[in-house]
Design brief:
Layout (H helix, E strand, L loop, with lengths): L1 E4 L2 E5 L30 H7 L6 H9 L16 E11 L2 E10 L4 H4 L4 E7 L5 E8 L6 E4 L3 E5 L2 E10 L7 E6 L6 E2 L16 E7 L6 E8 L5 E8 L6 E7 L8 E8 L2 E8 L2 E7 L20 E8 L3 E9 L7 E10 L5 E3 L2
Antiparallel strand pairs: 1-2, 3-4, 4-5, 5-6, 7-9, 8-9, 9-10, 10-11, 12-13, 13-14, 14-15, 16-17, 17-18, 19-20, 20-21, 21-22
Amino acid sequence: MELLADGVLVDEEWPLGSLPATMGALHLGPVEQAAIWSRALRDDEVQLLSGGREGMAERESRILGPQQPVKQGWGPRGFNTHLGNCMPFFHAGRFHLFYLFDRRNHRSKWGLGAHQWAHVSTTDMVNWDHHPLAIGLTRESEGSICTGSVVFYGGTYHALYSVRMADGTAAPFCKATSQDCIHFTKHPAFAQLSSPCRPEPARDPFVFREEATGLFHLLATTSLVTGGGCLAHLVSRDLQQWEQREPFVVLGYAEDPECPDYFEWHGWYYLVFSIRGTARYRMSRSPLGPWQTPAVETFGPSAGMVMKTAAFKGDRRIGAAFVPRIPGEYGGQLHFSEIAQHPDGTLVVIS
């Protein structure tokens, strides 16, 4: 359900369940003219009624405010809008920032979140391109498109994510593909978790390829059926058929380790995850562990909430996270961090 003003989307909500019929009257405020349709209008009809494509940028700026530069403290413009979990991705000289587009601090769709993947990108961290939604809600059963990751393989961009189901059933892992990393096509779910992992809270899949074997590994947030958080582990040769293995790691926390991240840097392998929003990491000399805990396992409060990282030009590592606008509430504003590596392999946020 969309609320538009002069053809500009100013608010939205997502239906769930049936709408009871009513014979009651429709009361309108002081308006000069009103028209009611018995169906949803097409995009081209909305544009025609609001004056066409010409002038849309001016109307958006007037109603939503001017588009602000993407930098520290940036967030999507609009009403009830916030920037949620970030999913940075670097490929072919371009830094892509996918993020969860949030309305109402996770309260949309009766508290399910109704998150969708939004997208901006840059080649220099200064000038940014704003792209259309990468992955949106298209089915009533989708309570939220959860955090995920993007990999480039076989000339195609693969975005992997899970779906928080509106009825509370097992969260499926899904994939969307793109040839330009801008326009994505959603595909049917490809996997669900089974014992010893709980399938309902499965989320945040992160996929990486092991260079020595060519095997793809998927790490996902969940918990054990016996209690305690863990990272589930699936493997694939082709990003099509997946096999679940024993949990990748059980970290000893009661909470689920959220938004896993994995990367190699100068011969060290890093596993990043968040507990209660604070990013922590483990390190190893081998791609799949064993994992050692550094003396200081967190990146500090300056890293923001649920930080994930991506490479950038000049052997840099950039962390992306959000800082809540309201303490204790979900979603807020963008926060970048520059990650540095000490000679002993430990990591630190330097800005």
